[in-house]
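>> received
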Amino acid sequence: VLALAGLLAGCSSEKKPAKQAAVGEKSTAGLENYRPPKIDTAGLLAKAKDGTFDGLGKPDEEGEYTKLTLTIANHKITGAKFEGFLKGGELKGPDYGKTNGKIENKTYYNKAQLALRANKTYAEELVKKQELNKVDAVSGATVSYKGFFEAGQAALEKAIK
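>> returned
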């Protein structure tokens, strides 16, 4: 009876509401379980030309977007730079996460800066591992991770044209 009660308790069909973003925070609703698409990086690299190629991630609900610049030589990624941009095209930097030039929400600011550090990690890991799908997400930087895959696929597709 206890086992049955435990099983039934875990089978609730009740939907939990999406987590609301605090004032000044970006919503990440729906990204908690983000799974990147399978991208055949090796297959794309096998057809890639040598050169430097930019790919852009899709803008989020606030118009912010990402850019991944890949340098490819002899079918290998020899360099990668991953950056985030605000809606107006301004590069996200040390002030990202501040409001009116001040840290008004320390939690949000720290999370925003974590995402910037993750951008560097994603690029470094891609050069080491040579596969988009082998780059692990950084906890708290899911929006950047999603943009990394979108921009990565776009850059690789440009490299084979």
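>> The two ends are 63 Å apart (CA to CA).
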